[in-house]
Hints:
The chain has helices at 10-24, 26-34, 39-65. By secondary structure, it is mainly alpha-helical. It folds into 2 domains: 1-35, no CATH class; 37-68. The longest helix has 27 residues, at 39-65. InterPro entries: Ribosomal_bS21 (IPR001911), Ribosomal_bS21_sf (IPR038380). Residues 59-78 are annotated as: Disordered.
Amino acid sequence: xxxxxxxxxxxxxxxxxxxxxxxxxxxxxxxxxxxxxxxxxxxxxxxxxxxxxxxxxxxxxxxxxxxxxxxxxxxxxx
Length: 78
């Protein structure tokens, strides 16, 4: 993973790096690997993730078809 540092602004580059790592799921994976996860907990977590994924896909499909209003886009402050 690579982040460009512009105008010697290391703080901003660190923020960008952390955001990229968060999106990739690196922090979640590090936490999962730090301790043993019981097989029953793993099954429950994977099942919950699958349900969450399916609900998200169904919600996006309904938004595309016009059955649900699209989410409002947040305005970014600069």
